[in-house]
Amino acid sequence: MSSAESHQEQLSQSDPSPSPNSCSSFELLDMDAGSLYEPVSPYWFYCKIIDSKETWIPFNSEDSQQLEEAYGSGKDCNGRVVPTDGGRYDVHLGERMRYAVYWDELASEVRRCTWFYKGDKDNKYVPYSESFSQVLEETYMLAVTLDEWKKKLESPNREIIILHNPKLMVHYQPVAGSDEWGSTPTEQGRPRTVKRGVENISVDIHCGNRKLWNVLGFLLKIPFFFFFVRDLQRITLPSINRLRHFTNDTILDVFFYNSPTYCQTIVDTVASEMNRIYTLFLQRNPDFKGGVSIAGHSLGSLILFDILTNQKESLGDMDSEKDAPNIVMDEGDTLTLEEGLKKLQLSEFFNIFEKEKVDKEALAFCTDKDLQEMGIPLGPRKKILNYFRTRKNSTGINRPTLQPASGVTISDIPKESGFCSKTDATGNGDYLDVGIGQVSVKYPRLIYKPEIFFAFGSPIGMFLTVRGLKRIDPNYKFPTCKGFFNIYHPFDPVAYRIEPMVVPGVEFEPMLIPHHKGRKRMHLELREGLTRMSMDLKNNLLGSLRMAWKSFTRAPYPALQASETTEETEAESESSSEKLSDVNTEETPVAVKEEVPPINVGMLNGGQRIDYVLQEKPIESFNEYLFALQSHLCYWESEDTVLLVLKEIYQTQGIFLDQPLQ
Hints:
By secondary structure, the protein is α+β, with helices and mostly antiparallel strands. The protein has helices spanning 3-13, 61-71, 130-146, 229-235, 241-257, 263-284, 299-309, 318-321, 337-343, 350-355, 360-363, 368-373, 378-393, 460-466, 499-502, 522-553, 562-587, 589-595, 628-631, 639-651; strands at residues 43-50, 53-58, 81-84, 89-92, 97-100, 108-113, 115-118, 125-127, 151-154, 160-165, 168-172, 192-196, 215-220, 291-297, 401-402, 409-410, 452-456, 483-488, 511-512, 611-613. Among the domains are: 43-175 and 188-196, no CATH class; 261-311 and 443-517 and 600-653, no CATH class; 337-393, DNA polymerase, domain 1 (Orthogonal Bundle), CATH 1.10.150.50.
């Protein structure tokens, strides 16, 4: 007897699975199904690597149907491309591969699936290969038609599949270390369930694409430090691994953005990618007539903020400015560098600039330290820098100014825009150094005007403060973007508010983003209820103590007439009511908060509120430090955030949701 024959005989004699002839529930099955055979309905899946493990995910029903129609069209599949996921991914049918359209992502395998088996470590089903699924289907068809079951098949991986009956099919994996005589029954391991057709497995299948063709959203989450990861890993300490990776992935890109070496590259890369994606989208959707909304996370939001701040209101001026210098002098400024120095009575320094090949435009980028290294004394340095910065800033085009004696070039918002102000040490009011700490760069132009800018977990407020901005003028708004939402988790260590910079003299809470199911989370309502209850008890107790104390300390007046007593009682009652009202006013901020009129937070978001805070989950409220790092990354999977974003985008198209913000 050969090894293979012995192996088959052992499987036949010692199959641990229930027999269709045994006294079991399978006797209740209708075995007269020969005439009821129907071909299996295929469904399309793609493979994605999640936590270093392959996971098969079904396409939505619309995409799967399109893929099946393309497969069954009779045309050659080679070179056939089917857009899926709302056009974000293309499936190359002949290759059976799925490619991202707008960003870099590893290609994933695609499979036309009909037969599945349950995975090893979880309850998710894994599809068989298309070729072996066809073998299984042919075997199943014969078994149903001839009513001959207990069929055994061996997969290309030497796995054994046994078809006992239409409702009982099992899968055995090969056991490592089996000898030449084959596996014993105890070595076959635990049988796995085999299912035919996607309708018989537990899997979430979405109905179809939710196409927002009237809007387009860019979710900008670019790892700006990707050029330097290898260098950082080489010098990163091995301790507190998670925290150090968070630092490398989230915080260190801030230093790269503030570096004169990399800042211009980062800004150019971001703007170029945004324009590329938009152009590609229009090529793939030529009938698109909608608007664009953009979103930035962490430092990405700051970069977007800087880019949007430095856009031109008129897109028609872009072509003429494409090759223009970054620094544009005011229209009446026709003075050369030599003439300017002569006007300042500093002509003796012209030869120095001429020797260093510094013209008027190059001088605008020079720092105090640069001029010092040229041998120019402190007094003339200040006059030169102040004069040429004044001439340059009068246009309201660009930002670079100097922090005196620091040697650091900075970049900020035009003084004329009304965005910010800063007071010098002598109290002389606004002056030209409106920002500190930012390197001087040339901000590229976007080829579209965004409708809304969403900032997730954003440090914009902190950076503006560090740059020296005291406040944001209520009348300021982005030149090309109408809306701005600063969305953050309450425990996010990187996020900062914006509204206090617009209204610095008023303390008020951010807007609370409602739960996607339409209410506050229960633990927040419970917390507010307990707070309100404690305040009521406190106020009632204080009122009772005041009345008792007055009654105890009041002198007796037996000779008073009844009318006088009545008047005094009424007066005391009114006085007590007024005092109690004062106490309530002081002690119950909740009541006061409800009566406060709407707060004017300026035009940065078209007159609407800017700061929006998520509701923390109940488990997160137990230890905010424990969930701080995780909260900075929560926005991409937050249903509450997605609901707010969709709500605001739809409103730009005149579609309003019923759910109000808290």
